[in-house]
Amino acid sequence: SEIATWFKGDNGTWKVEDGQLKMSGGITGAIMRVIPRREFSDDYVVWVDTEWISGEENSTYGIFYGASNGRGYGFNISASGGFIVSRWDGKEENVSVPIYDWKGHSSIAKNGKNRLRIDVAGFKHTYYINSIAVASIVDSTYSDGRVGIGVSALQQVAFDNLSVAERSPLLKPIVTSQ
What we know:
By secondary structure, the protein is mostly beta strands. It is 0% helix and 64% strand. It starts with 6 loop residues before the first strand and ends with a strand.
């Protein structure tokens, strides 16, 4: 029920079906986003379960965070088995700068189910795919903003169990969607 208050982009479609949020990108070169209204500014961990359903295998889907006014970070994978970490500066729609450029990784279940996780500890950001750390960066460009999920181009992806938790030994949930 909380999703009714979230921002939804207009570059695709979304629906809740079988307990999952199913998103479809509708325009090549654009991103369909779903964003909770809450902003985060301290250390936190965000994760989501994904399932690629169909479409363009080389297109991206995943988590973005530190998002505000068209700027933020993105951690995305593709159904073909690659991942990328990017930053948007808010000056041009959908124009990003790779911080960690495309790389294939064996932890990605191609055309399948994957759990994405980002651990934000100050300016250090660590990225996980299926519980395996795949990259880590130090970047102080943005320290606060919203967390959301997105799908680019013409593909359909299911998202489930989106959670944001304080970064602590107990990972106390802040926002969850199941």
